[in-house]
Amino acid sequence: MAKGPGLYSDIGKKARDLLYRDYQSHHKFTVSTVAANGLAITPSANIKGESFLADVNAQWKNNNITTDLKLDINSNLCSTITIDELAPGLKTILSFVAPDQRSGKVEVQYFHEHAGISTSIGLAATPLVSFSGVVGSNTLALGTDVSFDTASGNFTKYNAALNFSSGDLIASFALNDKFDTLTASYMHTVNPSTNTAVGAELSHCFSSNENTLTIGTQHALDPLTSVKSRVNNNGIASALIQHAWRPKSLITISGEVDTRAIEKSAKVGIALALKP
Known about the structure:
It contains 1 helix and 20 strands. By secondary structure, it is an all-beta fold. The chain starts with 12 loop residues before the first helix and ends with a strand.
């Protein structure tokens, strides 16, 4: 349903996906099954050091209504109901986490040829109200993202961003953390046929005067296998290889090493996803 400039969360997303998506230093296993009535059930397990996390997700679609339920190992039940095209370009999302009575939230998203708007309000006596909006086109877009806490009467978040997209090049600039952090990112698709791309992200924190630079690349070795790598100015280098031995079933092996302390053991993560 998305069209035009998209939502605020879409600004810089492709560069972030290239630099950070699928990298991990833990072990994760997921398996999905789909019943005849369309009910999809996905249990997952996540091992981080000595910690073990597990959850079960269930998703059911009926026409334009999608219901998602997630039960974690701590007996928290997260429910999300999404209604697409309630009106042209409109999406409504209702979510809550049991037993937290203050977790309820209603979000409305609107997609237009020259705008993308998302607004949400918590279902509480003194809710958190959030608004994000983007205006522009597929080529150039300007957006803002703010949250206001009615309990304290303070803005908990205000950000702004600019996005430029032209063919195989995407660049964005964002002021985050209440305008305390300036982030610039870009992604350039070098060869679409092999999904070869390079990207970079530079962040400057005004309060600490610290800079963080991350550069990365990705490449498809064949239609089923892809590799990615990245390195930042702190000397942390990472790489991963992902292989699909059948449609939608992936195995990802990633590693991370501190090049300034090469004597330390490298971190290795494995993710296995099985889907019908």
